[in-house]
Amino acid sequence: MSPTLDDPADLDERERTALETLLKRLGDDEFVLAERYTEWQVRAPSLESDLALANNAQDELGHARLWYDVLADLGFEERDLVYERDPEDFRHSTLVERPFAEGDWADAVLRSYCYDVAEDLRLGALEDSSHPKVADRVGKIRSEEEYHREHAQNWLDRLADGEEGHERLQDALDRLFPHALTLFEPCAPPRGASASGDEPRAVDVEADIVDLGLRDTTLEELGEEWLSIVVPYLESLDLTVPASGRSDADTDEFEFEVTREMLPEARGRDGSHTDAWFDLYDEFTHTYRDLGRSDTTKIMDTPE
Amino acid sequence: MSGESPAPGAKSNFTSDPEVEATPCAYTDYREGETIDDLPATGEDATGVEADVWDALYGIEDPEMPISIVDLGLIYGVTVADGVATVDMTLTYSGCPARDMLTDEVETRVGAVDGVADVDLRLVWSPGWTVEMVTERGKDDLREFGLSI
To answer: Which InterPro entries match (chain B) (predicted)?
Structure first.
């Protein structure tokens, strides 16, 4: 049993880096996915799905805030985490930053499904976290996430049933699957402006996250579980899943053996991102910069 | 007019194709939460400054419904020691857009209570809020407002 890491003031350098890295991958995934979801508001194929996606985006923003709140204990304020942060310091998976092709609802639905299954698994692995504030949030977030997965799966079933929908899903799957695999890549510790150049390696920080009991499952184990859920389900919709590490053709057992060839060039978790991310970052920080803000919640003076 | 409109009182017939089964809305499952011991906290047994803090909290309403945040079940605990009031509070859901508004109001009102010099407001998320945390009085308030609970 790992000791409880409850007082941020008592954390040593290794513990602090592990906690910060874990929280950034959690919070950044949620925040960036929400930014993308909001693009669908008023553009989804029905008023019902406009509302559903808008609501899911609101949930994800809420979850991002819950994780960023824990980072506040480590001295990070909202402006450091979002509006004034170096875009290369973000640690989200490239799955959540990819732009949507205009009108490609199948992409939004498939992306949501891939993400929501992964999120449910990783929340399960945080339930007994040695950091009480992390564990405290899991139940709440999980209860809200259940609906997201239900929504995605519901749409997947219907889209896969029609010829055009099926085709679009297959396209989206071919395009997104390598990015989905980055959900399980280890995170490089944040470098930021104060980087000394001898930061620990991503795999070592990831090992610390598990050793310290912050999360009780390795990324490989999570990846394997994810494959064993996602692959059979997508195949049941007659979709062809790209190389996925199935042990042999007749089983639904998987080994998470991701090779360099299976991954996209930019992986997000290591701070490398696709160009789309830098455009998105410019967009959501635009108003903050345009108004010359230096704080996120302070009420502005009423103009004379 | 087609002359084929159904007689008054006839059953509506929106599903014209009998082969197509009506699909129920997937989101009618309003799960009821479990009852949690000691919650909702209502400050019944509080005395002194703590009782005054509870009174202040009772005076704060949810921004969307005419119900006190205490009766809504958002307050998980109050203690006052050495002039510091510690309030454990939750929100109905994580993406609550009124979070800052509510926490600011709690800090202001509790901070104004005689004997309280400082407020330590802790947002907690476990156990997660459910409808079961609404007090009986809260349920009456919500019913009067027109919600079925």
So the answer is: Fe-S_Maturation_MIP18, FSCA_dom_sf, MIP18-like
